[in-house]
Design a protein that fits this description.
Elements: H1 2-23, H2 27-69, H3 72-75, H4 83-89, H5 97-107, H6 111-117
Helix pairs in contact: 1-2, 2-4, 4-6
Length: 128
């Protein structure tokens, strides 16, 4: 609904407001354009903020998960993992996490490479 309806509607409204302002300059058409752009920004931010919060929660959850699954030498290296690596590791099963973390740290694996290396996939059905 967001990508195929809400966002296009508000972006078209902003474009229409600009066209209206260019054809009939004036305070009313300028105000319509400003309000249309403000609405488009609000729609984008309404979608962006929950995703950022969710990523923060995923990072915290994965750090806690890794602290309980990793042996001590790797546990102390958890802060070296990037945000993308932590988010990608959430899909790995508990049994393969230690080896994947070791590879991610030593080989500087990208999130895409981590996901390709996962043998037993843990789906994330709760993503916003």
């Amino acid at each position: 609904m967001f990508h195929f309806f809400a966002l296009p509607v508000f972006l078209l409204l902003a474009v229409a407001g600009m066209v209206h302002f260019l054809w009939r300059p004036g305070l009313h058409s300028a105000l319509m354009f400003v309000v249309a752009v403000a609405l488009a920004v609000v729609v984008v931010k309404v979608r962006d903020y929950p995703i950022r919060v969710q990523d923060r929660i995923i990072r915290l959850k994965e750090r806690l998960r890794l602290a309980s699954l990793l042996p001590e030498p790797l546990r102390s290296r958890i802060p070296e993992l990037t945000e993308g690596q932590l988010i990608a590791l959430r899909f790995a099963s508990d049994g393969e996490v230690p080896k994947l973390v070791e590879r991610a740290l030593s080989e500087k694996l990208s999130p895409a490479d981590i996901k390709k290396s996962i043998q037993t996939w843990r789906p994330d059905y709760w993503r916003v």
